[in-house]
């Protein structure tokens, strides 16, 4: 067996970034993590989690999540409700399209307040 344990993502504002992603993904609210509670953790399925760590200059990240069709539709609706630009092309993350040019059932890219590129596909 091989599976992902966690992703570490730098953020200027760990609260804003983790809350944003948790809302968009429909995950539980982030929880404090680390010896000083300076990080924020979003739990995903199968024991995997995303860990936001404070950084004055976050490094660029691109992280993709695979979800089922129901959750994909919910993610798209939340992006629309929060007026977050999204698109199905990582070079045009604001085209508003959700069709998957790579042949899947759907794909969207969007940026968070720290400039990380997130992807959700089904």
How are the SSEs ordered, and which strands pair?
Blueprint: E1 6-11, H1 14-25, E2 31-33, E3 39-43, E4 49-54, E5 62-66, H2 69-81, E6 107-111, E7 117-121
Parallel strand pairs: 1-4, 5-7
Antiparallel strand pairs: 2-3, 3-4, 6-7
| The CATH homologous superfamily | 2,3-Dihydroxybiphenyl 1,2-Dioxygenase, domain 1
Quickly name the level 1 CATH class.
Alpha Beta
- How many extended strands? 7
Provide the CATH architecture.
Roll
Distance between the termini: 22 Å
Question: What's the CATH topology label?
Answer: 2,3-Dihydroxybiphenyl 1,2-Dioxygenase, domain 1
Structural class: alpha/beta
Order of SSEs:
EHEEEEHEE
Largest sheet: 4 strands, mixed
Number of domains: 1
Strand coverage percent: 25-35%
State the low-pLDDT regions, or none.
none
Mean pLDDT: 93
Helix content, binned percent: 10-25%
Enumerate the strands of the largest sheet in spatial order, edge to edge or round the barrel. Answer: 1-4-3-2
Put simply, the count of helices is 2
Rg estimate, integer Å: 14 Å
**Principal-axes shape call:** globular
């Amino acid at each position: 067996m091989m599976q992902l344990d966690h992703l570490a993502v730098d953020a200027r504002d760990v609260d804003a970034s983790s809350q944003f992603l948790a809302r968009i993904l429909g995950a539980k609210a982030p929880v404090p993590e680390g010896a000083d509670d300076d990080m924020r953790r979003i739990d995903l399925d199968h024991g995997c989690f995303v860990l936001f760590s404070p950084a004055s200059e976050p490094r660029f990240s691109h992280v993709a999540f695979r979800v089922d069709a129901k959750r994909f539709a919910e993610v798209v609706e939340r992006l629309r409700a929060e007026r977050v630009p999204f698109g199905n092309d990582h070079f045009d993350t604001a085209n508003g399209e959700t069709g998957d040019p790579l042949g899947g059932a759907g794909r969207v890219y969007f940026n968070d307040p720290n400039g990380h590129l997130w992807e959700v596909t089904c």
